[in-house]
Design a protein that fits this description.
Blueprint lengths: L10 H12 L4 H11 L6 E6 L4 H13 L4 E5 L9 H4 L7 E5 L6 H10 L3 E5 L6 E2 L9 E5 L8 H6 L2 E4 L11 H18 L8 H15 L3 H12 L1
Helix pairs in contact: 1-8, 3-7
Length: 234
């Protein structure tokens, strides 16, 4: 979110701006902000390819917020990603959503963009090379790829993936609803990440940027407040 040129401020200036905006946030909400930011991570991200059922799309956002996953990458090829407010319960306000929809086919661009940022791309699929969830390495940052409700991930996404992962099942049915799949995998992996001896936490700069976004989303007329602060103090 780019407001009043504040994205050009240095970290010290952003922290001063954050302190100012928090003056307009209730103490209870402030405490929620600081309690939540401690557990946020970008070590694990989620990518959704062509999800079209709004209740599934929204349930995934709710899961990510509940378990501290900050970034959700949304690929829109044939289907537009719609959020059902009754299901999401405002969870989209607390996440960073990145949409890839400039072309007719956006999967490759999305995956390659994240690979350039150092992410391993892990396709969730019953591919013959898929490892069970508990065997997936968490040492380096990664993104889980989930496909459309009917057909799963596209062939392109599968070909571009670095690794494959599955939830072991012992019943007659071989698949779960996508929102359930995301919930199981994100809960397990987020817990595993936080107890591991790896650098999963956000940097101070990332925390400040996210807290600023959260503050902007709850105060009234944040653009006016920012302009006034920058004019008077910076």
């Amino acid at each position: 979110m780019n407001m009043s040129g504040s994205d050009e401020l240095n970290i010290w200036q952003k922290k001063k701006l954050l302190d100012y905006l928090l003056e307009f946030v209730t103490p209870h909400k402030q405490q929620l902000f600081f309690d939540s930011i401690k557990y946020r991570t970008r070590h694990l991200g989620i990518m959704l390819e062509d999800i079209y059922q709004s209740h599934n799309a929204s349930a995934v956002l709710r899961t990510c917020d509940c378990f501290g996953i900050q970034d959700v990458h949304i690929v829109e090829n044939r289907n537009k990603y719609e959020v059902n407010r009754d299901v999401a319960l405002g969870s989209n306000k607390w996440l960073n959503l990145f949409k890839y929809n400039d072309k007719d086919h956006n999967t490759a661009e999305a995956i390659n963009t994240l690979k350039k940022k150092g992410y391993r791309m892990v396709a969730t699929t019953l591919h013959r090379k898929a490892v069970p969830l508990n065997e997936l390495s968490i040492d380096n940052k990664f993104v889980l790829l989930f496909g459309t409700e009917l057909t799963g991930l596209s062939e392109e996404a599968t070909e571009l993936a670095d690794e494959f992962c599955k939830i072991p099942m012992v019943g007659f049915t071989e698949s779960l609803n996508i929102s359930v799949t995301v919930a199981i995998m994100v809960h397990y992996l987020s817990e595993k990440i936080r107890v591991a001896e790896i650098d999963w936490e956000l940097s101070e700069t990332e925390k400040t940027d996210i807290l600023l976004d959260w503050a902007r989303r709850v105060v009234k007329k944040p653009d006016v407040l920012e302009r006034n602060f920058i004019k008077q103090h910076l």
